C-alpha cells in the first residue's frame, strides 16, 4: 500500500510529464476512456493515505510505549560509548583472571607502553610478554606480527626460539641427576664422556668438570675461534674495570675527606694526564666479531646426538685454565648434554621431554624444521640496507642444551614458578606442613642461584653468573638511595630471536611466611622474533611495576 501511495503521489506531482502522454493518463486516453481529472487523482491519493494511517494506528496501539529518559542516578556513573581506538600494529591480550587484571591494571598499562616503545625502537616485527604474580599468570599479550608476510599477529600462544634460556632448562636435568646420586659435579667430564679428550693448558694437565662447565669456567671456547682476540678482549675489559674501580674509590675518598676544589681539580688533571699516557699502552684491541658474525652460528648440518656434536670443538685448545676466568660458552653446554645422556641412560631430548612433561611445559620442544609446530613464528633480521628479511635456515641440533629449544611465554612462566617454588618452599615448611615438595629441593635451588666467584653477568653488570642463571644480590650502599633487589634471570640471543626469563622473589622473613604459600614473587618472560634485542632491563622494569601493584 505504501509503495502504491508513493507512486501515485509522485505521478500527481509531475503532471507535466503526464500531459505528454507517457504516463497513465496517456494510456487511458488512447483506450478511449473518459479523461481522468486532477481531482480524481488527488482523491485517490487521499483515500490511500487514510487507509495507510488506519493501518499504522492499529499497529501502534499494540506496541509498548518507550519510557522517557530517566533522571541520572548520582551513585551510578554515566555509561558512555568508548571511543574508537586505532592500532598501528596488532595486539593480542589474554588476562586469565578478571579480578587480578583489574588489580594490576596500572602495571599492565605502563608495561604495555614500555614494550611498544622497545618494539618501535629496535624495529622488531613481533614481541610477546607474560607475567605471573605469586604463581598465577596475570597478563600475557602479543604485539606486532609473528609472521610479517602473512600478517599473522603475535599472541600469547606464539612459539619462538628461546635461545640461551635453554641452558637453564638443561640445568634442571643436571640437578635432578645430581639429587639422585647419578652425577658428581666435580668428577672430570671424561668419567662420563670418554670421547672428550683430556686437556692441557700451557703444558700442564688440567681437569674440566661438570660444575665448571655449568658456570662457563671450563676454558672451552664459544663461537670465536681466535684465542688471541678473545684474550685481548678479556684483558682490555679487566683493565677498564680495574681503572673505573680505582677512579671511583679515589673520588669517593676525596669526597669523604671534604677536599677543596683546587685539590679536586689537581686530581682531575693528574687523572687526565695518566689517561693520555696509558692510551698508547692500553689501546683497545682489534674489533672482535660478535656472535652473529660467526659462521658456526649458521650451521645447517644435522647432528644425530650430542656425542656427534662434540667433534665441532673437542680437539680445540682451552682458552684459559679451567676455573681461572669466565668465558661464556654454548659449546660447553653441548658437552653437558652428552653428560646428561651418559648419566641418565636416556637420549638427551628424551630426558628433557620427561622434564617438560613433569613441569607441564607442553609447548616446549626442540627446534626442528620438519615437524609441524602450531603457532611457530618466523624469524627476522635487518640486512645491510636496513630492510627486514627472513633469517637464513639454521639447524640447532649441535646445541640443543645451550640454545636449541622453542617455547611460549606461558611455558616459561611455569618453569620460573617451579624454580621459585623450590627455592622458597623450605622457608614455608614450619608454617604450612601440607606443602608439596618442589621439583628441585630447596638446597639445590639455593646452590643454583648462588653467584659463583670469577664469573660475569653480561646482561647486568651488577650481578654474577651462578649455575645456568645470572643472579643479582640484594644490596643498598646508602640510606634513602638506590636499593638493588635480588633477582635471577637468563637472556637469550639466537638467529632471528631474543628472549629473557626473569624471577623477582618476594623479600621474605620469618613472619612474612604466615598465611602464605609459595611461590611468592613476580616472574616475567619476553620473547621476540628479532635478534640482538636486549630485554633484561625491560623485564626488570616490568617486574618492579607489578611488584609495586602487588605490594599496594
Explain this structure.
It is a single chain. This protein is an alpha+beta fold and 552 residues long. 40% of the residues lie in helices and 14% in strands. Strands 1, 2, 3, 4, 12, 13, 14, 15 and 16 form a nine-stranded antiparallel beta sheet that branches. Strands 5-11-8 form a three-stranded antiparallel beta sheet. β3 and β4 (152-153) form a beta hairpin. Residues 1-36, 38-42, 54-88 and 259-288 have low confidence and may be disordered.
Short description:
The chain is α+β, with helices and mostly antiparallel strands. The chain contains 17 helices and 16 strands.
Determine Rg (CA atoms, Å). Answer: 36 Å
Helix content: 40-55%
Taking the sheet with the most strands, its summary is: 9 strands, antiparallel
Mean of pLDDT? 82
Summing up helix and strand content along with how strands pair, one would put the structural category as: alpha+beta
Outline, from the CA principal axes? globular
> pLDDT under 50 segments (min length 5)?
1-36, 38-42, 54-88, 259-288
Ends distance: 69 Å
Count, helices: 17
Strand content: 5-15%
Q: Let me know the number of strands.
A: 16
Amino acid at each position: 500500500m505504501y509503495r502504491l501511495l508513493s507512486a501515485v503521489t509522485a505521478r500527481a506531482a509531475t503532471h507535466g510529464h503526464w500531459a505528454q502522454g507517457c504516463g497513465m493518463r496517456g494510456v487511458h486516453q488512447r483506450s478511449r476512456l473518459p479523461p481522468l481529472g486532477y481531482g480524481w487523482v488527488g482523491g485517490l491519493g487521499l483515500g490511500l493515505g487514510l487507509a495507510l494511517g488506519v493501518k499504522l494506528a492499529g499497529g501502534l496501539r499494540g506496541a509498548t510505549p518507550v519510557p522517557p529518559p530517566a533522571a541520572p542516578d548520582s551513585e551510578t556513573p554515566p555509561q558512555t560509548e568508548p571511543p574508537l581506538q586505532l592500532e598501528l600494529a596488532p595486539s593480542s591480550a589474554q588476562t586469565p583472571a578478571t579480578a587480578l587484571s583489574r588489580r594490576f591494571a596500572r602495571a599492565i598499562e605502563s608495561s604495555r607502553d614500555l614494550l611498544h616503545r622497545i618494539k618501535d625502537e629496535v624495529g622488531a616485527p613481533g614481541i610477546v610478554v607474560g607475567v605471573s604474580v605469586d604463581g598465577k599468570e596475570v597478563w600475557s599479550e602479543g604485539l606486532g606480527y609473528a609472521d610479517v608476510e602473512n600478517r599473522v599477529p603475535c599472541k600469547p600462544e606464539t612459539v619462538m626460539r628461546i635461545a640461551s634460556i635453554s641452558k637453564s632448562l638443561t640445568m634442571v636435568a643436571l640437578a635432578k641427576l645430581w639429587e639422585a646420586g647419578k652425577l658428581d659435579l666435580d668428577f672430570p667430564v671424561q668419567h662420563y664422556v670418554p670421547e672428550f679428550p683430556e686437556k692441557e693448558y700451557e703444558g700442564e694437565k688440567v681437569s674440566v668438570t661438570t660444575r665448571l662447565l655449568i658456570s662457563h669456567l671450563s676454558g672451552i671456547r664459544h663461537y670465536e675461534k681466535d684465542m688471541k682476540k678473545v684474550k685481548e678482549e678479556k684483558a682490555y675489559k679487566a683493565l677498564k674495570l680495574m681503572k673505573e674501580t680505582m677512579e671511583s674509590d679515589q673520588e669517593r675518598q676525596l669526597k669523604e675527606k671534604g677536599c677543596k676544589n683546587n685539590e679536586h681539580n689537581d686530581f682531575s688533571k693528574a687523572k687526565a694526564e695518566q689517561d693520555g699516557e696509558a692510551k698508547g699502552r692500553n689501546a683497545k684491541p682489534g674489533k672482535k666479531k660478535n656472535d652473529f658474525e660467526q659462521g658456526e652460528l649458521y650451521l645447517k648440518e644435522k647432528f644425530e646426538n650430542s656425542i656427534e656434536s662434540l667433534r665441532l670443538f673437542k680437539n680445540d685448545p682451552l682458552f684459559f685454565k679451567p676455573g681461572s676466568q669466565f668465558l661464556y660458552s654454548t659449546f660447553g653446554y653441548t658437552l653437558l648434554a652428552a653428560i646428561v645422556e651418559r648419566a641418565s641412560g636416556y637420549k638427551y631430548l628424551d630426558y628433557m621431554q620427561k622434564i617438560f612433561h613433569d613441569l607441564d611445559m607442553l609447548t616446549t620442544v626442540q627446534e626442528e624444521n620438519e615437524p609441524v609446530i602450531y603457532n611457530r613464528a618466523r624469524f627476522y633480521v635487518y640486512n645491510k640496507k636496513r630492510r627486514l628479511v627472513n633469517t637464513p635456515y639454521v639447524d640447532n641440533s649441535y646445541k640443543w642444551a645451550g640454545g636449541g629449544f622453542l617455547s611460549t611465554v606461558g611455558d616459561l612462566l611455569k618453569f620460573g614458578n617451579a624454580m621459585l617454588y623450590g627455592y622458597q618452599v623450605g622457608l614455608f615448611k614450619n608454617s604450612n606442613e601440607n606443602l608439596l615438595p618442589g621439583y628441585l629441593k630447596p638446597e639445590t635451588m639455593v646452590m643454583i642461584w648462588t653467584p659463583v666467584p670469577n664469573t660475569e653477568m653480561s646482561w647486568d653488570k651488577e650481578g654474577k653468573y651462578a649455575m645456568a642463571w645470572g643472579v643479582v644480590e640484594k644490596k643498598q650502599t646508602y640510606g634513602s638511595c638506590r636499593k638493588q633487589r635480588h633477582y635471577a634471570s637468563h637472556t637469550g640471543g639466537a638467529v632471528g630471536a631474543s628472549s629473557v626469563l626473569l624471577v623477582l622473589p618476594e623479600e621474605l622473613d620469618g613472619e612474612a611466611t604466615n598465611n602464605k604459600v609459595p611461590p611468592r614473587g613476580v616472574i616475567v618472560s619476553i620473547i621476540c622474533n628479532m635478534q640482538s634485542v636486549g630485554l633484561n632491563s625491560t623485564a626488570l622494569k616490568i617486574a618492579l611495576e607489578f611488584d609495586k601493584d602487588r605490594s599496594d
